[in-house]
Specification:
Blueprint lengths: L6 H5 L7 H25 L3 H11 L3 H13 L7 H12 L3 H8 L2 H8 L10
Helix pairs in contact: 3-4, 4-7, 5-6
């Protein structure tokens, strides 16, 4: 099977562009390709990603698993569990370690992040 050569047709819109215009066109098209992927990453997370974030914040594996489970149960995982911890840390003026320990307690997490909870608005 022979491929139809349409190179000249496809390049007709680019032939009169300068190197700088070609460079800008390339980056514009590249950005159009990447934007949906960036948006997808911003809007979606997984329990595995959230556990990973908590581990990097200093939580143990057991604490991270518990906190992520509580975030799922209270419907705030989409906000990012790290974001929830920062809200607790700022609201109660705790250290990160104290915040992790408190949030690993289901009753504390639920009290703060259940629907209508102290920290649930704008999570």
């Amino acid at each position: 099977m022979k491929r139809h050569d349409d190179f000249n047709e496809r390049r007709s819109s680019l032939i009169n562009l300068t190197d700088e215009e070609l460079h800008n066109r390339f980056w514009q098209l590249s950005q159009q390709l990447v934007d949906p992927m960036i948006e997808l990453a911003r809007q979606h997370t997984t329990p595995s990603i959230e556990r990973s974030v908590l581990l990097r914040m200093g939580a143990s594996s057991i604490e991270a698993s518990s906190i992520v489970g509580y975030a799922i149960a209270n419907g705030v995982i989409g906000s990012g569990v790290g974001h929830c911890l920062i809200k607790v840390m700022n609201y109660y003026r705790l250290s990160l370690r104290e915040t992790i320990e408190k949030c690993a307690d289901e009753s504390f997490f639920t009290l703060n992040f259940k629907s209508g909870g102290v920290l649930n608005e704008n999570v």
